[in-house]
Amino acid sequence: MMSGYLTVREHCPVCMEELHHHRADDGPAYLTVLIVGILMMSGVVGAYIAFQPDPLMVASVFAIGGVALALYLLPRLKGVMVALQWAKRMHGFGDKG
Questions:
Q1: Chain segment 25-68, per-residue pLDDT in tens
Q2: Of 17, 23, 26, 39, which cross-links 91 as Cys (Cβ 3.0–4.6 Å)?
């Protein structure tokens, strides 16, 4: 479905379904921030309570982990948003013309 990191193809190479009229916009970014924020903050609190490490070490490790997780999730959540629009026949996916 994707031709680049965040670029959706004009059409599916297998079934030729047109994908150019999707409206993913900011939805994947909001979901990514929500998921990464919840996971990272629970991890920070849990690590700090369990091990009581240096705060700078916790901030460094979890900042790198958060960025890596966000970069991993963003294109996948964009694919989920486009697939959800296709499944619900939203934004032109259901048109017969």
A1: 899 999 999 999 999 999 999 999 999 999 999 999 999 999 99
A2: 23
State the pTM of this model.
0.88
DSSP of the chain = -BSSSSPBPSB-TTT--B-TT---TTHHHHHHHHHHHHHHHHHHHHHHHHH---HHHHHHHHHHHHHHHHHHHHHHHHHHHHHHHHHTT-TTTT---
Number of domains in the chain: 1
Of the CA atoms within 13 Å of residue 74, those in its CB half-sphere come to 15
Q: Extract long-range pairs of 20-25: CB within 8 Å, 24+ residues apart.
A: 21/91, 21/92, 21/93, 22/81, 22/82, 22/85, 22/86, 22/91, 22/93, 23/85, 23/90, 23/91, 24/78, 24/81, 24/82, 24/85
